[in-house]
Design brief:
about 190 residues; mainly alpha; 2 domains; 9 helices; globular
Length: about 190
Amino acid sequence: MTDDLSAGELLALGLSAANLGDLDLAESVADRLGSLASDSPNNSNLKIIYAEVAALAKAKRAGELLLEGLTTDGLPQQQEVLELLAEAIRLREAGRLPNGAANPLKPIHELAGEINLAFGFASDAADLFETSLLRLPNRPLSLLGAARAYASAGDQDKANAMYGRLLMIWSDDALPSVREAKQFVAVN
């Protein structure tokens, strides 16, 4: 990581590192973003980007802790993650509605939905994905997340509807999510 990376580049690096399991790098990126956010206290977008990277890194770390010997050590970190996400959502909702592409590139409601779903809070996740879709209609990853959340919550009709909407946008069978959607729709 170099000092000349923009906030958007740091977001991409941090989220990628967390998703690839390089939690040390993700945490370093979160620290850098935290410093940048502290230096620019009025920059809510930077605060949201920091919260996204920090929350995902903490969520992945909590998952590691919970998997190690069936311990509950990760539960306090899960609570920290949910608090970070709630603050970022508050900041995002205090601003104007999106006008064009997502900014930051990973919408906070979508990320919060993904993390809530990973934590087992399917109903909360579905609500977050629905909010994401109100703000950024037909965003494929929000449709996919909503479908998964509804399926996990046992609402097959809403899951089927979301997968159907996703298939209206994406149709390439090379994409695992398209195959997932087609399989779900075929049996439900």
